[in-house]
Amino acid sequence: MMKNEWTEKFDWVMMFGACHDQMRPDRCLKEIYRVLKPNGLFSMFETNGTSNVYKDKEINTSTYMYGVSLSHCLPLGINSEGKHSFIL
User: Fold this and answer.
1) Which of 5, 46, 63, 66 is 20 to 30 Å apart from 73, CA to CA?
2) SS3 string of the chain?
3) pLDDT tens digits for range 27-36
4) d(Cα 64, Cα 88) in Å, to the nearest integer?
């Protein structure tokens, strides 16, 4: 969890290609909502995949992204301790 004193502290929060790495994306998004000021902005950029390995392999950058996911994203996501953990 983020610091308690960060509640309603930020005008804008950006997440770039990280939501899919979270062990508990629901908790991560809830924390983002908590730290945003009223009427604050949240921007999220995510991978453009279909969740279908047969379709994704036809996209030129999918092989690269799959390699990055296996070597970086997956280990981070499963390394969280506790049922309420998420990556920050």
Assistant:
1) 5
2) CCCHHHCCCEEEEEEECCHHHCCCHHHHHHHHHHHEEEEEEEEEECCCCCCCHHHHCCCCCHHHHHHHHHHHHHHHHHCCCCCCCCCC
3) 889 999 999 9
4) 24
